[in-house]
Amino acid sequence: MVHTWSSLISTLFLLLLCITGLPLIFHHEIDELLGYDPKPEIAQPGAVKRSIDEIARTALAHDPGRVLQYISWDKDEPNNVIAFTNSKVDGDPDAATLRAYDAHTAKPLGPVGGGPMLIFLKLHVDMFAGQPGKLFLGAMGFLFLVAIVSGVVLYWPFTRRLKFGTLRDKSRRIAWFDWHNLLGAVTIAWALVVGATGVINTLAEVMLGQWKANELADMVKPYAGKPPPVHLASLDTTLANAHKTAPGMNVSFVAFPGTPFTSSHHFAVFMRGDTPLTSRLLKPVLLDGETGEVSDARDLPVYLKALLVSQPLHFGDYGGMPLKIIWALLDVMTIVVIGSGLYLWIVKRRKHRSHAIAKQPSLQPAR
Amino acid sequence: MTDARKPRSSGNWLMVYGGPLLIGALSIAGLTSALLYEGLGRYFSWLALGAPIALTAWFYVRRMRHHF
Predict the structure, then answer these.
(1) Residue B30 falls within a domain, yes or no?
(2) 3-class SS of residue A253
(3) Higher-confidence position of A75 and A301
(4) pLDDT tens across A88-111, in order?
(5) Structural domain harbouring A58
(6) Is the pLDDT of residue A360 over 70?
(7) Would you state the pLDDT for residue B7?
(8) Phi/psi of residue A61, each to 5°?
(9) Cα–Cα 20 to 30 A to A270, which of A128, A215, A254, A264?
(10) Mean pLDDT, residues A233-257 taken together
(11) Is the pLDDT of residue B1 over 60?
(12) Residue B46 structural domain
């Protein structure tokens, strides 16, 4: 009962998630192919990187009337400096414009993201329904986890007389039943991890709000009541100070004062390490928006670290192309599990209606 | 499982859950290894997470061979 209903309610949305998730595994490659992932020019040997202040000015001149929200550095393409501009510092994330600039020449390289993959991403993340849509998909993901766990419990009575890997073809129903069991059984750990990390990701905004209300509020207490900065400090000074505070780490992105990732008084520079794990575990350094001096630097709380570590485990983007292909195949196997589950339910219902269930005892639990 | 069923049970839990449990443990090891170790961890993750796919393919081929 639990297995049937938790699956049925979520089936349609899980199919949507699995199908839109499939191209998203290759998001980066597809964007590159379609020209939404600009590449920096090849730098002359010994070329000096331009000042970030200059790149910031170039970005603002490119999009007049807008303000900078973030500047980020691609981990794999450190010569791409990506500027996020928006109508205001706390503007709608969907209204942000992302453009890449060459770190050595400050030349604009083109827009980042957008295109058809953005549609898949929006469908996958919130079905174009904002935060409610995101939380709804989180709930569907939770039902998916319930369906998996209840499936494990049901697995015993249904398969205890069968050898692992049995694929019968007595009837179409039995064949799909065996496929459902086999594919479900071998993908279970992967599906649980991808499902659970997906659910965690739907809570990102909630967690960020929690961090801002507690840890961040505590860090910026000395600034309470002060007006927001009028003249922003030099970005180069700010970034140099952040580097001194977190030696050996690189800048992932800098959030401008007033954006959702910092206070209205501070630049927040998020630093990352260089291993697959530490590159995800960001460390924020808060710097005074007017002077660029370090105000505070604390590790993120456990729940945000969990969120950051859960992301690669959901995306499958941390083990090269072979891992992405494996991710895609496991996703297809999950689609078959969901589809065959739906098929089995429809067939069973039809059988119930025609009162012929007694003639088909083969899919009853083994006694 | 209910007590009523137990005495009649001829199923062995290891036979039923053994295979999936092994594949599951291998998957978890693969998922973490690539996250923790860049070089070898990555290669191991390909093997460990490729195992469920390879096993499924093997079961499928075995059944096909059985038929023809």
Answers:
(1) yes
(2) strand
(3) A301
(4) 999 988 899 999 999 999 999 999
(5) 38-112
(6) no
(7) 43
(8) -70, -30
(9) A128
(10) 96
(11) no
(12) 14-67
Contact B35 A188 (CB under 8 A): no
> Does the residue B28 lie in any domain?
yes
B62 CB neighbours in chain A (<8 A) are 165
Number of domains in chain B: 1
For residue B31, being part of any structural domain is answered with yes
Interface predicted TM-score (ipTM) = 0.86
Mutate to test the interface with A, among B2, B5, B13, B27 (most CBs of A within 10 A): B27
CA-nearest residue to A280 within chain B is: B35
Residues A213 and A124: their CA atoms lie apart, in Å, by 28
Q: Confidence class of residue A337 from pLDDT cuts 50, 70 and 90? A: very high
Cβ within 8 Å, pair A188-B20: yes
Residue B7 lies in a domain: no
Main-chain phi, psi angles of A280, to 5 degrees: -95, -25
Residue with tokens 């079961």: B59
The predicted model scores a pTM of: 0.89
Element (H, E) at A165: none
Contacts of B19 in chain A (CB under 8 A): 164-165, 185
Residue A188 and residue B51 in contact, taking contact as beta carbons nearer than 8 Å? no
- Three-class SS state of B57: helix
